[in-house]
Amino acid sequence: QLQLVESGGGLVQPGGSLRLSCAASGFTLNYYHIGWFRQAPGKEREGVSCISSGGGSTNYADSVKGRFTVSRDHAKATVYLQMNSLKPEDTAIYYCAAAVQPMCVPGPQGLNYGGMDYWGKGTLVTVSS
User: Fold this and answer.
1) From the CB of residue 124, how many other CB atoms can be counted at a distance below 10 Å?
2) With 0-12 CB in 10 A as exposed, 13-18 as middle and 19+ as buried, what is 97?
3) Angle 18-42-23 (CA atoms, 0-180°, nearest 5)?
4) Checking CA distances to 6, which of 37, 39, 63, 76 falls within 20 to 30 Å?
5) pLDDT tens per residue, range 54-83
6) pLDDT of 89-112, one tens digit each?
7) Which are the contacts of 62, defined by CB distance < 8 A and separation ≥ 6?
């Protein structure tokens, strides 16, 4: 069974940091382009960041630019989302998704690509004092 698994979510105080991980079961992530998405209660899902299969192209939503960093480790076949200076408005379920199509292009279209092939079940990030 092909699936993605996110980990690393939790409760953190404002200004704190978390690192989310995204790994695959049943296939390797190394050949896929990866997107990170989040959905806050009562809101639509939004694209947060993405990274190309080779790691050379990345993109970030304006709301997280300068605070979040996406990276990938091909040896571990894992993609990470380092989140620093977290704010209460970052509270959401975070999902990673994989695409065969090279979707990580500049601008909003790269963050909200509608043709992701695989999705994880998400990990909850709560930013609260």
Assistant:
1) 12
2) buried
3) 35
4) 63
5) 999 999 999 999 999 999 999 999 999 999
6) 999 999 999 999 999 999 888 899
7) none
